[in-house]
Amino acid sequence: xxxxxxxxxxxxxxxxxxxxxxxxxxxxxxxxxxxxxxxxxxxxxxxxxxxxxxxxxxxxxxxxxxxxxxxxxxxxxxxxxxxxxxxxxxxxxxxxxxxxxxxxxxxxxxxxxxxx
Length: 116
Ligand SMILES: [Zn+2]
Known about the structure:
mainly alpha; 3 helices; 0% strand; rod-shaped; binds zinc ion
């Protein structure tokens, strides 16, 4: 078990000190009680931080998936330099001009890498 943060213990001791000081008259007991409360607060806080970090990680993963999807779609939208057919449809139709559609390699790469 880790020792509670002394700063947090001080804060709690200050907040509770006056109230329990008068009932038992012992500053040491107050300090021990404050340290105990600080530990409980820290454990709770660490748990919440871990939860929030997990949520943030899920959010970032979702963001990355959306970005990849957007770039995939951008690449599918690149047009054949000869007939204007979308890259995504190149296998469904033959090019009326040259048989095989022609796409600008730089344009395809730029779309996939998110350059505009
Ligand atoms: Zn074409």
